[in-house]
Design a protein that fits this description.
single chain; alpha/beta; 6-stranded mixed sheet; 11 strands; elongated; binds flavin-adenine dinucleotide
């Protein structure tokens, strides 16, 4: 893979943003190459809720059946019961969308689905285990592509009319391009962790300390 690659648009990062952009461009006939540094999308803690508005977009793209063919669960309401009282925290049933449910599916299954849909287009190329290293510039300092490292460690140059960095919040490529992100995150922290739970054990039995 060490021969230079030419494409219309190269996208660095095969997360939700990069893969969805790749799919949308491929549908429009653009030759698009997405480079993803991992071999697959199987990473923990990437979230698993697919919101009704996202599902509306999938309906417009004709991808809802592809989504629902994969293992998932739907939730019309988020309710919490505590000492005999049930509180409704969220109710999706009134939304002006066709699917009025929150769908739960690991993000890697969702990304597999988007990648599969994109790969139906011959002008979509997904290079896995390929890391974007730095932007390529011409003599006038214009960005004209991206230098990547292929799965066997060989450096490869991908030249493109458009380079999109979708490699996440700590992007080396963005830093190399000299771009400063505008921070708009909500002022909150989320602590996310996993608790062991054996099949058949109720939450109540854990609470009583019956290990
Ligand atoms: C704990 C947690 C829970 C969440 N839960 C939900 C949820 O339930 N529902 C929801 O909708 N959202 C959820 N989110 C948010 C969601 O995960 C992010 O909004 C989304 O992943 C951002 O997508 P992205 O494509 O911009 O970036 P990312 O998902 O970060 O994807 C970037 C991709 O680029 C790749 N990459 C990085 N550097 C390079 C490089 N140099 N070369 C090539 N590839 C590279 C990475 O491997 C990755 O695949 C959650 C986020 C977190 C942290």
């Amino acid at each position: 893979m060490n021969t230079p690659i030419r494409t219309d648009c190269v996208v660095v990062g095969g997360g939700p943003a990069g893969l969805m952009l790749g799919l949308l461009l491929a549908r429009q006939g653009v030759d698009v190459t997405v480079v993803e540094k991992h071999a697959d999308f199987l990473r923990d803690f990437r979230g698993d809720t697919i919101h009704p508005s996202t599902q509306e977009l999938l309906i417009e793209l004709g991808l809802l059946d592809d989504l629902l063919r994969r293992p998932h669960s739907d939730m019309a309401r988020v309710q919490v019961s505590w000492h005999g009282t049930t509180v409704t925290l969220a109710d999706f049933s009134h939304l002006p969308t066709q699917r009025k449910v929150m769908t739960f599916m690991p993000q890697w299954d969702f990304l597999d689905m988007i990648a599969d849909a994109a790969m139906r287009f011959p002008n979509f190329h997904l290079l896995r285990s390929t890391r974007g290293e730095k932007v390529l510039r011409d003599a006038g300092d214009r960005i004209i592509g991206i230098a990547v490292v292929s799965p066997d460690g060989t450096p490869v140059e991908i030249s493109a009319h458009l380079v999109v960095d979708a490699s996440g919040r700590d992007s080396d490529v963005r830093a190399d391009a000299g771009l400063e992100p505008i921070r708009v995150a909500a002022a909150m922290d989320v602590l996310w962790f996993r608790l062991p739970k054996q099949p058949g054990r109720s939450i109540r039995s854990y609470r009583r300390g019956r290990e």
